[in-house]
Amino acid sequence: MPKSKEQLLVNISKHIQLSPEEIKQFDTFWTEKTLEKGEYLLRNGETCRTDNYIISGALKAFYINSKSGREEILYFAIDDWWASDIDSFQKQKPSNYNIQALEKTELLQISRYSFEKMLEQIPKLERYFRVILESYVGSLQRRIIHNNVHDAEQRYLEFIEKYPKITDKVPQYLIASYLGISAEFLSRIRQKQKLY
User: Which domain holds residue 39?
Assistant: First the structure.
């Protein structure tokens, strides 16, 4: 089995155990894909045809604000994370946003049809994907609360504490967009932090 699929199986094994037979079945549903820096995994208006596990690399999900014309970052995804438009993938309808590689990115992909087949053949994977979905929803809820309750500096400090690997991979101006502040304001926050 390729090392990439082994990495995903290690992730899965934190939540459920697959038998050797199930692992063989599991292997047949996934394909590998490489995105070069700047290449799109998904564009606004396209239907999200695959769920995507990141072996290595970094992606940003974003939409273009129709009023300002600026990129608004929805999320980042790095090694050992997932990146998809869940609504578009589940309902097979056009996406409202883009997903683009910030660096060369290696992925494992599964189509909607293969995903359903896999869950039929290996029902215990339902639990794994439920845990992943619950984690994603929880992070969205925390983000909404933090954006409503905390000031920009608190949001930045929480972000770098919770996601140090993203901070290492992603340019600061994109982190500023994710936090809903200007790059200049983020720079001032970082300068202030250096003084402490």
Answer: 3-124
Per-residue model confidence as pLDDT tens for the chain (196 residues): 567 789 999 999 999 999 999 999 999 999 999 999 999 999 999 999 999 999 999 999 999 988 888 899 999 999 999 999 999 999 999 999 999 999 999 999 999 999 999 999 999 999 999 999 998 888 888 888 877 788 888 888 888 888 889 988 899 899 999 988 888 888 888 887 775 5
- Whether 54 maps to a domain, the answer reads yes
Burial of 23 (0-12, 13-18, 19+ CB in 10 A): middle
Shortest CA distance to 88 belongs to which of 106, 109, 112?
112
* Number of domain units in the chain: 1
In a domain, 155, yes or no: no
